[in-house]
Design goal:
By secondary structure, the chain is an alpha/beta fold. It is built from eight helices and eleven strands. The protein has one domain: 3-Layer(aba) Sandwich (Rossmann fold), CATH 3.40.50.720. The strands form four sheets. Strands 1-2-3-4-9 form a five-stranded parallel beta sheet, sandwiched between helices. The protein has a two-stranded parallel sheet with strand order 5-8. Strands 6-11 form a two-stranded parallel ribbon.
Length: about 230
């Protein structure tokens, strides 16, 4: 069963829509810059109703965010909201919380990092680039592969990162998008941002068997969706 209609819901649709042993909760606030309490309350209410309707033996998968570990983000309304939602989900005996990085895929959502950067470059619009920031990017299809591997191997009652084994400087992402769209980025470098570790050690056995996170991964993924 799948709850939601956005990129994540579409990504898991064919693989999970008819499964009775798992609920994929792929709904709620998708804009990390959101400050609207009503949006947060709406997600909480839907999440609580969904949990109440889910059998205790059914795996309940909730997607959270790796940015919880970002030193620039711990006090943002979005991160605080995600932490509260994680606590609610942990009350379900068969929960599985998957923290995600920036997910690449076809979506009209203008608030994703990749869509934002691509739009600014394609339009020649000025934007700010945090000099020290690094971001983790994963293809939505690779996210599905890794998530289903965890679910099918019986992982329950845990909070895990499902991410790329490497991260990228924001400038590297910008320059890759420049090459792909043959545009010129107009940006101001801001002396902000930081790298933060994302532990993917639990994923390595699955990733090494199914996914190649090599040096060309970023460019291949961005060309797939923006080329």
């Amino acid at each position: 069963m799948i709850i939601g209609s956005g990129l994540l819901a579409r990504t898991f649709h064919d693989a999970a829509k008819d499964r009775s042993d798992v609920v994929i909760y792929a709904a709620g606030v998708s804009n990390s810059q959101c400050r609207d309490v009503r949006e947060f309350d709406r997600e909480r209410n839907l999440l609580e109703r969904s949990l109440q309707a889910t059998d205790v033996l059914t795996c309940f998968v909730y997607f959270s965010t790796c940015s919880i570990a970002d030193p620039e983000s711990p006090d943002t309304p979005y991160v605080q909201h995600k932490l509260r939602m994680e606590q609610i989900v942990r009350a379900h005996p068969s929960h599985l919380i998957l923290r995600l990085p920036h997910v690449a895929g076809r979506t009209p959502n203008p608030h994703t990092l990749l869509n934002y950067l691509y739009a600014r470059i394609a339009r020649g619009e000025r934007f700010a680039v945090w000099r020290h920031a690094r971001r983790n990017v994963i293809d939505c299809n690779d996210l599905r592969t890794l998530s289903l591997a965890l679910i099918d191997s019986g992982v329950r009652g845990e909070t895990l990162n499902v991410a790329n084994v490497r991260d990228y400087a924001i400038l590297e992402i910008v320059r890759t998008l420049e090459r792909i769209c043959r545009g010129h980025a107009v940006y101001d470098l801001v002396d902000r941002g930081a790298a933060y570790p994302i532990d993917v050690s639990r994923l390595l056995p699955f990733a090494e068997a199914a996914i190649t996170f090599n040096e060309s991964y970023l460019e291949n993924v961005l060309r797939k969706y923006y080329g």
